[in-house]
Input
Amino acid sequence: MNESQHLSSQFDDELSRLRTHVLQMGGLVETQVSAAIEAYTTGEVASVKTIVETDRKVNELEKAIDDDCAHIIAKRQPTASDLRLVLGISKIVTDLERAGDEAKKIAKGVRRIYENGHLPGQYGVGIRHLAEAALAMVRQALDAFARLDTPQAADVIRADTDVDAEFKSIIRQLITHMMEDPRTITTSIDIIWIARAIERIGDHAKNISEQVVYVVEGRDIRHTKEKVQ
Amino acid sequence: MQIHDTPTLKAEARNLNFFYGEAKALKGINMPIYDKKVTALIGPSGCGKSTYLRSFNRMHDLYPGNRYEGEIRFFPDNTNLLASDVDPIEVRMRIGMVFQKPNPFPKSIYENVAYGLRVRGENNKRVLDDKVEHALKGAAIWDEVKDRLQEMAPNLSGGQQQRLCIARALATDPELLLFDEPTSALDPIATGAIEELVHELKKRVTILIVTHNMQQAARVSDYTAYMYLGELIEFGKTDEIFIKPQDKRTEDYITGRMG
Output
C-alpha cells in the first residue's frame, strides 16, 4: 500500500475521507453487533429499537460511500493501489451493511424469544461465546483495514474456521434439545436463526479481511485455499 | 484472469545505450516488442521514451554526435537495426512513424500517401491508386476523403491530418509503426478515433506508442513499459501494470504521486 502523497492533494483528501467513512460505518456495525449480543444475554429488548435505527444510518453510509467511489473512479481514474483501495472499499461496505442486517436479525430474534416468555440462555449454550468470537472478528477486520495490516487480516480469516465449527456444534446441541423435548422447538428455531446470523457476521468479517489482502497486496484470495501470510 | 499466450517477438532491445554527444540518454535497455501487439512507453518528460522510440527507425542518425551501443534485433530476419551496414532508408520502409503534430506534406491528399511508394520507384498508376485507397481505408479516413483526393492535405482537420499521416505510414506496408504521442495535439473525439484505429491496426502491424496520457496507455496497449531517467524500470502486461505494478517507482508514477 502506498502511503506517499499524490500530486493532487484533493485526491489525497478524497481517499482519506473515503477511508474515514468506511471506519465510521464499521464502528456503527460493530455497535450493532455488540448491542445485539448484549440484548441476547440481558433480555434488554429496548435496545432492539436502537439497533434497527442504527441500521438506517448504516444503509445511508453504504450508499454515500458507494457514491463517493463512483465519483473517484469517474474523476480520478485511480490505478494500482488507489484502484484496489476503491474497489476493495466498495466490496467492504457491502459486507459491513450485511453484517449490520444480521445484527438486526439477532435483535429481532431475541425480542421474539423474550416476548414468548423464554430465556434464550437456557437453550443456546455457547451462543454467547460464538457471538463474542464473531464480534472480535469484526473488530479485527476493521483494524486490519484501518492499518492495512495483512497479518491481522490473516488472523481473521483463520478465526472463521473456528466460528464455523462452533456454529455446527451449537446446531447439533439444539437438535438434541428439540428431540428430547418438542416444547422447546419454537425457541430453538429462533436460536438457530440467531446462531446462523452470528455465523454469517463471521463470514462478512472474513470477506472484509480478504479485501484488505487484495487492497494491500493485489492478491485475490477469495474462494481459494491460498495461504495468507 | 490469466491468458496463456506466448506472443512472438517482433523486435528486442538488447543492452541498448544511447548518447547525445556526452549525455547518456538510454541506459542498458533490455526489452521485447511483441508481434502484432501494442506496446506503450510511459514515463515523465525526459525519461528517454522518445529517444528509445526514435532509435528503432534510426532517426538519431540525422544528427552528428549521436551514438548507439547495444542492439535492436528485428525479427523474423534477426537483423540488428543499429548495425552500421544496415541502411536507415531500408529500415524506415519497414518501420513507419507518426509524430505528435500531424505533419502532412504540402501536397494533395493522394500524393501524401503515394509519396513513400514513389520513392520506392512505384509509378504504375493502377498500383498507386490501389495502395493509396488501401492505406486510406486502413487509416479509417477513406470515406471522408475519397471524393477529394486531389485537395491539399493541410486543409484537412487536425484529426484527419493525423489519420492521413498514419495512412502515409501504412502505404509502404510497414511491419512496425512508431507513434510519438500521436494524439496530444488532438481533441477527445479525434483522439478516440485514433485509439480505435490503433486497435484495428494491430491486427496487421506491431505498434510501439509513446504517450503522456496514462489512461491512453491503459486503453490501447497490451504491454506497458515504464521508463525513468533513461532506464527501463518495469515492463509487463498493461493489465498487470495498472492494477499491480511490481516497482514502487512505477506505482508512484501511474497513481500520480510523482511528476
